[in-house]
């Protein structure tokens, strides 16, 4: 006779054995789904009660075995999510209600789409999602949010009462006009229309004129000084935008030790002295653009390090795609095309739930028009070009 399921909330990812968590992941998972990534966030203090991200990871246990799990947090703000609900929080506040804390299922500070309810057995995933929905309803908190879920989860989220929201990110695919991967960067350029080819070549010449040497590194080859320099660049980018970085140096060091093949640095140096750096994650199929920074202003270097070198890297290493991350319409002119992303939301108060559902319906219509507009500006050659 099978033992009943046990639903548990855990206050730390360290309460789960790494091999048990990772056994729930799909084939070729994104790096940020691994136990090591979430543990590095918590162990470094980037995630925790002091940061406003209090772990309450939802787990389902069957016969004493971990059958399904969800990265779940109590959030006391909306920073670091890349899906914006500030207006909803303000509406709650205007009516004298508390929007925070809220339930949030997400990978902290990481807008990389992928599964959020983890497990090999679809029935276990369904039971866990139902358990989280019951938790949200009984907790007296304002809401439950699931950010950047995978496509396979959308129907389940809706069945559990969550409303879908749409967003957009930008992605480059390693697929030439004949359906095969590009042979080299010139082959990629050849797929673009004349104006975009010309613009990219001009930008690369301007970046090359800085006379910098470029080095690709990973967790095995990057030195402690390289990681210090990355953090300096990363923090400087936030400072230029009058903001505070979410991550600290300890996080990067921990992640590099734990997943050395999945962290990638591109360092630009002048006469051996580093002046700029870009940080990526990678898995078996995809390179993910994450952070970049420089210690001096160098025109067009951002495009070179964050887009053109990334595309060359994907071609050279047989990766299928490059994900450029959230926001940035300028990415379209560099060969990245818009792709739809999703989030899911449940609002406890029926009055606000109705208002949010109405807003989301209008927003989806606007997003459809926006995606059509972006696709019309696609840089790739037409049959007549």
From TrEMBL:
The lineage's top-level taxon is Bacteria
- Full protein name: N-acetyltransferase
Which spans are transmembrane here? Answer: none
Entry-linked Pfam families: FemAB_like (PF04339)
Q: Which InterPro entries match?
A: Acyl_CoA_acyltransferase (IPR016181), FemAB-like (IPR007434)
């Amino acid at each position: 006779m099978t033992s009943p399921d046990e639903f548990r909330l855990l206050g730390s990812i360290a309460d789960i054995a790494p091999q048990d968590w990772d056994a729930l992941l799909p084939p070729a998972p994104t790096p940020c789904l691994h136990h090591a990534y979430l543990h590095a966030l918590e162990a470094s203090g980037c995630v925790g009660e002091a940061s406003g991200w209090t772990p309450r990871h939802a787990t389902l246990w069957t016969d004493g075995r971990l059958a399904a799990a969800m990265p779940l947090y109590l959030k006391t703000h909306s920073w670091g999510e890349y899906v914006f609900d500030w207006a909803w929080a303000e509406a709650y506040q205007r009516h004298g209600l508390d929007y925070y804390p809220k339930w949030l299922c997400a990978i902290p500070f990481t807008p990389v789409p992928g599964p959020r309810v983890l497990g090999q057995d679809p029935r276990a995933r369904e039971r866990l999602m139902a358990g989280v929905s019951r938790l949200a309803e009984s907790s007296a908190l304002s809401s439950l949010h699931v950010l950047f879920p995978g496509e396979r989860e959308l129907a389940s989220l809706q069945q559990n009462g969550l409303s879908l929201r749409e967003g957009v990110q930008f992605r480059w695919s390693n697929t030439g006009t004949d359906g095969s991967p590009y042979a080299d960067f010139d082959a990629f350029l050849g797929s673009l229309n004349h104006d975009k080819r010309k613009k990219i070549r001009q930008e690369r010449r301007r970046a090359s004129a800085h006379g910098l040497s470029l080095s690709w590194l990973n967790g095995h080859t990057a030195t402690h000084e390289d990681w210090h320099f990355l953090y300096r660049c990363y923090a400087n980018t936030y400072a230029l935008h009058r903001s505070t970085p979410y991550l600290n140096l300890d996080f990067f060091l921990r992640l590099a030790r734990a997943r050395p093949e999945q962290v990638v640095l591109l360092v630009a140096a002048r006469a051996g002295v580093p002046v700029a750096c870009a940080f990526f994650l990678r898995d078996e199929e995809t390179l993910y653009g994450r952070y970049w920074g420089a210690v001096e202003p160098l025109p067009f270097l951002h495009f070179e390090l964050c887009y053109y070198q990334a595309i060359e890297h994907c071609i050279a290493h047989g990766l299928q795609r490059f994900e450029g991350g959230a926001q940035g319409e300028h990415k379209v002119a560099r060969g990245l095309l818009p792709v739809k992303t999703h989030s899911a939301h449940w609002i406890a108060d029926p009055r606000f739930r109705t208002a949010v559902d109405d807003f989301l319906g209008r927003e989806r219509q606007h997003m459809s028009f926006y995606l059509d507009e972006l696709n019309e500006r696609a840089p790739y050659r037409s049959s007549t070009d």
